[in-house]
Amino acid sequence: MPGHFQALKTDPNPVHLFEEMMKRLSFLLVFTLLLTLILSACSPAPAPAVTEAASPPATAPTPLPQPTVTLEPMPEPTDEPIILSDGLGRTVTLPAPAQRIVSMAPSNTEILFAVGAGGQVVGRDDFSNYPPEALALLTIGGSMGDYNLEQIVSLNPDLVLAAEINTPEQVKAMEDLGLTVFYLSNPADMEGLYAMLDTVGELSGHKTQAETLAASLSERVAVVEATLSAIETPVTVFYQLDGTEPAKPWTVGPGNFIDLLIRMAGGENIGASLEFAWGQLSLEALLVADPEVILLGDANYGVTVEQVAGRAGWGDLSAVREGRVFPFDDDLVSRPGPRMVDGLEEMARIFHPDLFE
Amino acid sequence: MLKERTARPFLIALLILAVALVLSVMVGSVFIPPGDLFIVLKAALQGQTPSSPELGTFTTILFSIRLPRTVLIAMTGAALACSGSAYQGLFRNPLADPYLIGVASGAGLGAVAAMSLRWPYTTLGLLAVPLAAFSGGLLTVWIVYVLARMGRTLPVTNLILAGVAMSSFATALTTFLMLNSTGELRRALVWLLGGSTLSGWQPVIALMPYWLVGLGALITTGHALNVMQFGDEQAQQLGLPVTRVRRLIIIVASLTTAAAVAFVGVIGFVGLIVPHILRLLVGGDYRRLMPLALLGGAAFLLLADVLARVIMAPQELPVGVITALAGAPFFLWVLRRTRQQNLWG
Amino acid sequence: MLEVNHLSVRYDQKPVLKKVNLRLETGKILAVIGPNGAGKSTLVRALSGIIPAETGRIVFDGHDLANLPPHERARLVAIVPQVRHLPPAFTAWQVVLLGRTPYLNWFGQVSAQDEAIVRQAMEQTRTLELAKRLVSELSGGELQRLLLARALVQTTPIMLLDEPTTHLDLHYQISLLNQVQELVRQPAAISLENGHRSPPAVLVVLHDLNLVARYADQVMLLVDGQVRAYGSQAEVLRADLLSEAFGIPLEVMRSPNGKFPIIVPLMA
Prior knowledge:
The complex is a heterotrimer. By secondary structure, chain A is α/β, with parallel strands linked by helices. Chain A contains 13 helices and 13 strands. In chain A, strands 8, 9, 10, 11, 12 and 13 form a 6-stranded mixed β-sheet that branches. Chain A has a 5-stranded parallel β-sheet with strand order 5-4-3-6-7, with helices on both faces. The longest helix of chain A has 29 residues, at 14-42. Chain B is mainly α. Chain B folds into 2 domains: 87-264, ABC transporter involved in vitamin B12 uptake, BtuC, CATH 1.10.3470.10; 267-337, no CATH class. Chain B has helices at residues 8-26, 34-45, 53-91, 103-117, 123-148, 156-180, 185-192, 201-218, 222-228, 232-237, 242-264, 270-282, 286-310, 319-338. In chain B, α1 (8-26) runs parallel beside α13. Chain C has 9 helices and 12 strands. In chain C, β11 and β12 form a beta hairpin. In chain C, α4 packs across α5 (140-153). The longest helix of chain C has 16 residues, at 170-185. Chain C is globular and about 55 Å long. The termini of chain C are far apart. Classes of the chains: A alpha/beta, B mainly alpha, C alpha/beta.
């Protein structure tokens, strides 16, 4: 090789040399490409696994106050390992109910506390703010899609609970670090929601509590449905997700859980004509549809009824004229969890005040 | 004054790079005491498992998070700075950066398109996104090349215009896809912000061949780029086959950039600013600029990444934000200090 | 010796050179004159290979130049262009050194011999004292001499100069053309790599007819892409031909010492 290279270097055609170099290097490239594909299929082993015995890490989280509502503070003992299939089709195995859980989404945090596993949560994402006890937990990132892997690893969790707002890449990254990750997909309907609660209950050793919770939620839903069975025509509703562009506000479409809740609450979502689960509706279409009720899903971001009423053209909507624009806590319906039933009840109260107190 | 042809700039660059590498490994949200750092390193070198769970955590953090990230960031910075230098020389334009002829927007389109296909969660399925991004970037450059070709020549103006046109088109398509893919919108946004690398050693291994070939080839292009500074006509009259050289350099630079973008996302500013800073400090000779860009680009991006991790701890900022915020004032400072003659004519 | 046979060149369907024949002999200066748009610059560019010929051949020593790769062609033909497109951040030395490009490898490695050749060329053109200065600091005249040095360093048997006196004051116009004349009169001071030891053949495009009268061995009058006249000074520098070509009445007189013709435009 050296001799030939020398000859090439004195070759009168310099570009020829470069192209020769490139040809040789491309063979190398193809070879290493194949090697890469093989290597990645075998997946490099993560760093030496952390041992099971959980002694406190260098950065200990602040002590947690006890959750105010607990039926069974202690997880139930199980003998067999927990094997479940998650939303990405992965099979997740836990030898015992998880004791150190990191929640990657606000919805997961809410569910964990709701099934009584609040005491087992050691870390949460930046946006988890309910219940109030969750605020005391150590945060591990989540704004701008960036999670602090070092923090998560140092918390030494035995389960990381991911949600649909997390990307498969993030799940893989944590998997590669030797962590056990469970990805909870969003539910498509109420049954899906109850299944979600059951799953989290099983993972955290609060199966019975989860079942009880699901049963009580189901009952409340049944009450709402029964009360609404007398209704003949649903109330037309516009749910504003984002109104920063007043001529084209964002709303929910078919396939969105919020759309389902609206219907279950005796409403008719005028966004149902949209193509996708969310999209922009033109102000003209809104005026034509003239919904009876307008819900401001962006009230949490500071949007007020007065603001909306003052927008150009919006004053002609009968809902605005007759004072049927209401702020709405979007967290109740956009986070898959038990509070969705709260959201359902709230909506039903707004749509049909005469039937509910 | 003629810049003295010493090795001093290289030594300084190496020093800065070394400091940046060390900082990148030592800095993070979890503080590893230097004593423990040495123990962990020693144990790993001797092939022993960590003796305590705490050291085990440190080992995981060091070898599975920080070290691969350091290598990834350093190589990406080198790739972007070298490509940027090559493009600035190739197009004789101070505003040229590695994304000029559409690599970034093409990669974004490829990635988002792959995401909307919803590949299953398998090793190959997860590799689909970076692969699609890589292919998208290269495909876009190829289209730009075909559009810009005029007979047997490859005029610079055509390349720039076609590049801008294709970039806009790809970006528009990407936005459309993102809005229509509902569930994948967030995933696409995270990718575009540069935050969703498949972390760990996998991206590093996958990218290594492209970096070795691409960077290795790029740093040899200094002489050809020097000759190209005289304009296409004079360069051809001096014996350089201009169209062929231009095509070769575009291929190599695009490969290198596309590979970087596929795994790390689009980090702006590095490819534009680092060559300028170097040019102000050591002059316009591309034979020195190219290897210096490799060292300087790596150091620059490493330092920016360290800042991104530290400046608002424990929250981490995307490194692209830091490069934009920190790069501009630094550049202006260098410009004022050296007060060189206008280097572009 | 360079032979050009029936060279025709088109730009976008429009013919710019029509069947041009010429011969460049070693040690001789051929001046190309003609009105604007006659195709003089095109001729230079076609000879250097940047523009493809539609028909016709350019042959040097039996080699058809069109078949040669750029770096080999660059060892045969060197251009002194008009001063523009010079990268401002380069030093004078670097500019001249890049004239060695046809002999350098991909990495641009420079040998001691290359540097000696550069030094010699810069001495000859009296630009050596400018070596460390940046292009942006130099005057038009200094830059033009640098470009001449660069062409010299290319050590080619053929040199083409495209209006090299445009930016120069009278002193430098004469100085530059004197240097060119020196080059062709004396055997090459610089040893040529391709074995040629004879002085180069030079083609120079000039606007100033009196400079042509002073320095050219042969003259070619190009009008509208065609050769209107070609031959010695006496044959081409004639009042009737020139007046017709340039569209103004001219008179050709003799210099007081009788050596050179002087061309004077007559205003109506």
